Automatic annotation (TrEMBL):
Lineage of origin: Eukaryota, Metazoa, Chordata, Craniata, Vertebrata
Record protein name field: DEN5A protein
InterPro entries: cDENN_dom (IPR001194), DEN5A/B (IPR047278), DENN_C (IPR043153), Tripartite_DENN (IPR037516), uDENN_dom (IPR005113)
GO-annotated biological processes: retrograde transport, endosome to Golgi
Pfam families: DENN, uDENN
Molecular-function annotations in GO: guanyl-nucleotide exchange factor activity; small GTPase binding
Gene3D superfamilies, sorted: 3.30.450.200, 3.40.50.11500
Boundaries of every UDENN domain copy: 18-278
Stored SMART domains: DENN, uDENN
Keyword Plastid (UniProt): no
Keywords, ordered alphabetically: Guanine-nucleotide releasing factor
């Protein structure tokens, strides 16, 4: 790996709306997206692979920062990305996004303030005129109904809820060793969240993957130690098909057999193919 990167919430700049996601002020504050930042990277720069802070920050967390409470599911999510430079060269990124508790009182207070503003606007928009109160009581469409209470109070209360924010750890590599990078990141995250400390300091594992684990020669396999077990990566020889480390099974699970066959047919017929995804 060339870089180890951490992206997430910059407590100094606070909550900034993520302009790339478009305006979503009609959403409740917990459903809005906020701007993420590259918080740290190591090393500072690699001569053969200059660090592109804007690209890495955007691709590590393409949806920006997400906030949740203890009532929401907070399972870690893994994804990969490619940065293609002007000269056609590529560098590969692998990102594990997880949620950690917000310890900054300023951020918690800011989220609470956003909810007060959102609820006040909701009241203004949904309070019926005085002559409509009778009809509203019969139809059940006013603020006093259970539906409106759900919309209004399915929110964040600083005195009752625990606030969590998304954060990601990322490896930038010269080749697409997806399985190996995923295992490295998952084991690092496991070590951070485990009540028992890892056998060695976490910095030593990161240093190992950056400086001591070499790129395997063509046609060879490489086995190295992760935090909790060995990790293997294989590089095809020059006479084999190029490296493709992604499970084809997932493509069929996501798209279904008919769509995969249709896509394959379009590729063979050299049709233009557009994949649209959230």
């Amino acid at each position: 790996a060339d870089y180890f990167v951490i992206c997430g919430l910059d407590t100094e700049t606070g909550l900034e709306p993520d302009e790339l996601s478009g305006e979503n002020f009609e959403q409740t504050p917990l459903r809005r997206t906020f701007k993420s930042k590259v918080l740290a990277r190591y090393p500072e720069n690699v001569e053969w692979n200059p660090f592109d802070q804007d690209a890495v920050g955007m691709l590590c967390m393409p949806k920006g920062l997400a906030f949740k409470t203890q009532a929401d599911s907070r399972e870690p999510q893994f994804h990969s990305f490619i940065i293609t430079r002007e000269d056609g060269s590529r560098t590969f990124g692998f990102s594990l996004t997880f949620f950690e508790e917000v310890t900054s009182k300023q951020i918690c207070s800011a989220m609470q303030t956003l909810y007060h503003m959102h609820n006040a606007e909701y009241d203004i928009l949904h309070t019926p005129p005085s002559n409509d109160k009778e009809s509203c009581s019969s139809t059940g469409d006013c603020n006093g109904t259970s539906v409106s209470k759900l919309q209004r109070f399915n929110s964040y209360d600083i005195s009752r809820d625990t606030l969590y924010v998304s954060k990601c750890i990322c490896l930038i590599t010269p080749m697409s060793f997806m399985k190996a990078c995923k295992k490295v990141l998952e084991q690092l995250h496991q070590a951070v969240t485990s009540p028992q400390p890892p056998p060695l300091p976490l910095e030593s594992y990161i240093y190992n993957i950056l400086y001591e684990v070499p790129l395997p020669p063509a046609g060879r396999s490489l086995k190295f130690s992760g935090v909790y077990g060995p990790i293997i990566c294989q590089r095809p020889s020059t006479s084999e098909l190029p490296l493709f480390d992604f499970p084809v099974k997932e493509v069929f699970e996501l798209l279904g057999v008919e769509n995969v066959v249709q896509l394959f047919t379009c590729a063979l017929l050299e049709f233009q193919i557009l994949l649209y995804s959230q």
